[in-house]
Sequence to fold (484 residues):
Amino acid sequence: MSNVARNIQNSVYNIADVIVYPVFFFATVPFFMGHLGEEIFGLWMLMNTLILSFQVFNLGLGPAMMRYTAKYYSSKNENALKNTISTGIGISLLLFILSIGVGSLMAFFISEGLLFHLPASITPLAVKAMLLTSLIIGTKFCEQALLHVLKGLERFDLYFFINNSIRFITLGINMIQVYFFKSLTAMLAVSVAVTILMLLVQFLVLKKINKHIHPIPSIKKEYLRELMKFGFFTWIQSLIVLLVFQVDRFIVVSKYGTTTLGYYALTATIFVNIHTCITAAAYWLVPKIAAQHNLETDKTDLYKSLRAFVTITGIAALVLFFICYKPLFTLWVGSEKLLQLDDFVPLFTAFEFFYLLIIVPPLFLNYSGHVKQGTRVIYIVSLLNIAGLIAGFAFTGSITGMLWGLLLSTVAGVLIIYELINKLFFKKAFFSETFFFIAASALGCFVIVFPDLFIQLGVLCLLLLISWIYFVKFEKTDIRLLFN
Fold:
């Protein structure tokens, strides 16, 4: 397979990985809610929240494994590649042991009524669920470490098939057993069993890809320092972003209660998945960025091409989403619930038009040897976002005002970050260039202001035309560079 074909395939698989499963999962939500009942379904959602939240404490191991796997694989340093993978597996096993200890402690606090303050009727079930969840969390640390190795080896196809096999096998078995037995503990036990089975598959796959890879756990000090030095900063970035996207939910639940929070959190989760999908359009290039850094080649053209690609595809996708979301959501949740979501979707859409502009800068900085600057970018934007959320709510006392604060603070963040990046990569500021990206996102917002379908389609065509004129004719951006 040619390099171009391989890169296109990587892009398709990486985007599909973040689209396919969420679509199926959201479709099954009414099924699980109906068979488990609202109380047990809520407990299951709590366990899923803990699984996702605890992954933030993986010390940035996954991204670090991907970066250094790509680095040593491209330079054909087989010894370093082997030691990097073995050290990463060793770290993930330590995290596995730690997760069991923390989970057992949390289960004890639940049993004593000191954590989550759950009803007495489900407390025994919650204790068992917490213990099983700690096993899931631990196995996920190991799973993600190995999956990121596949990304570093540029085998996004294998990553897609293995990752989604874990998800869909678990989901399918759980749907069958919930239909007949309605057991939450069985659901969680299935997740543990499937993950362990697929870990064995990943070991065999890695061995087959490269005979020099020995996925046997060991911790080498040199490679431990290397992984942790990079992983620490990406870990800090994850913690900061997590904080930003929890502040608003605490404000909502404290002021408006759990019912409003339910609709707000559902909308926010949808846009988190949209943002993840747009990010996937860039993330598959990480091995290429890491390899270029390793070879000390010029990165400015790759940065500009990647930024143009994500901007065009992201804004176009968001316009199409807003045009189509009402009939799709009506089919999914019904017209009554759509009215509740309509309070939040327009402002979240406007926010995402600008927030997608911040995808490429930290991603490129992290994997091109500037991880400290990448962390600084996340820190600046997140600090502005938190200030915007709090200020917006303080001045208006409403969720709408809070989201306006989030939106305006993101615009300010884009202005600051783009100028910093331009000075770093191009050694000078280009305010006119920064203004174009702001203007493109602002034009996308016209689909929110004007609900007429013909106007919305006209905005989409105008955006594509302006992007083509600017990126191709004026900036001379060569998108083909991403696939060569």
Q: What stands out?
A: Residues 229-479 form one domain.
